[in-house]
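User: Fold this; tokens only.

Assistant: Input:
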Amino acid sequence: MGPQRHANTTEGTSCERGSLDVKKRPQSQDATPSDTVQPRCWERDPNAQALRVELADGPHFIFPYAHLSFARLASNETKETLVLTFSAHEVIIVGRKLRDLSLAVQKLSADWIKELPKRYVQLLDGDSAHIETIDVKELAAESAGDKTLSESK
């Protein structure tokens, strides 16, 4: 069976599962290929009922917004950390420019998130979010050894 394809109805494009999601920027006369393709590590959908979390090594999780307890965004000089606490899990997102993502979570409109491979970082413009790592932890297991689901395969 070949690669799975899915339609991206918000942008009118399609992509293969596992490929880089990109957002096309308006082209100008002086546009170069790097000006026309913008990698994305999250997507907004005002009708989202759940957040899909895709990990770089393959697995993904779906967390219903009805189970979201709270979110916390903290930053230091070089990185930001967005922690989403659901009823039984905690999603820890580390990267840069995560404020818009946290605002989308506030409005329950972030549809999916995923880590952006390092090879695509140079394609980002200065205002784009960059998710370096995502860890998913099961809260009930924290007292029994702080089990990270994204590392236990």
